[in-house]
Structure formats: C-alpha cells, structure tokens
Amino acid sequence: MRVPKKQANPIDIQVGNRVRIRRMLIGMSQERLGDLLGLTFQQVQKYEKGMNRISASRLQTICKILGVQISFFFEGGDILPSDTTNDEPERGGIAPYLKSREAVALNTNFLAIKDAGKRRALVKLVEALAEMYGNDRPDDLVNTD
C-alpha cells in the first residue's frame, strides 16, 4: 500500500511563488537568498515550491531581504494558480508564464524603457513574431492600448 504524497497548501504555494518572483525581479539567486537566511539553496527551492511552510519570523526576514511588505506575499492569489509549477505557458492562461525567468527578464527590461512609443513598437514586434511563429493565445489576453 502506497502512502499518498503530502500535498502542498495552496497558500504556501502562493507565498513561495511570490518569493520566487520577487527574488528573480531583483536578480537574486536562490543561493544568495539562502546565504542571507542561513539556509541551503535547496531549502529556498522547497519554500518557493510551497513544499515547506515559511514561518512568520522567517517571512519577516525575507521581507527585509527582498524589500517588500508582508502583504506582497498574499496579493494576487488569482494571478498565481497553485496547481502548476510549469514554466511554459498553458493554452488559455498566462499565469504560468508570468513565473518563468523569461517573463521576469522581459518585463523588467520592458519597464526600463521610458519612451511609451518605443514600448508600443516593442509590443507590436512581439505580436508580429507571435503571429509568425504559431500564436495560439486567446485574443482577450492581448491589450495594446
């Protein structure tokens, strides 16, 4: 008889996803975060996947390191679904993509472009590339206004 695998709590997954996103946005490695917390990068991985719960005191330390308020980890629950860890976009949803390294890099660099006209031109370029190379995203996910 097999013992079922322990399921991660959706809130722990949400908090872990937010840790990962913020860490990547500021360009910090799992190793560096682990060093600052006195942990191994494997423990940070488990936190980010929601497999290990982050205690309140540890979460407060993570807030200081990542430069965010504690509310950051509990915002946007509907944006970051708890049922996927895949870095590839799924048909009909953009949330899994938002957790990928590519999305973080793209969005960080996009936000660094101050000229709105250049940002619009970049969006048009990406749309054209997506159309050329098999764009299968739903039209309602696209808003270039």
Characterization of this structure:
The protein is mainly alpha-helical and 145 residues long. The chain has helices spanning 10-25, 30-37, 41-49, 56-66, 95-98, 101-112, 116-132. The chain has a single domain (10-112), classed as 434 Repressor (Amino-terminal Domain), CATH 1.10.260.40. The protein contains seven helices and no strands. α1 (10-25) packs across α3 (41-49). The longest helix has 17 residues, at 116-132. The relative contact order is 0.11. Residues 78-93 and 140-145 have low confidence and may be disordered.
- What does the average pLDDT come to? 78
Label the structural class.
mainly alpha
Oligomer: single chain
Shape: globular
Largest sheet: none
Strand content: under 5%
Radius of gyration equals 18 Å
Order of helices and strands: HHHHHHH
CATH architecture: Orthogonal Bundle
| SS field, number of helical segments | 7
At the first level of CATH, the class is Mainly Alpha
Quick one: how many beta strands?
Answer: 0
How far is it from the N-terminal to the C-terminal residue, by CA?
56 Å
**Which consecutive residue ranges, at least 5 long each, have pLDDT under 50?**
78-93, 140-145
How many domains is the backbone divided into? 1
Q: Within the CATH hierarchy, at the fold level, what is the topology?
A: 434 Repressor (Amino-terminal Domain)
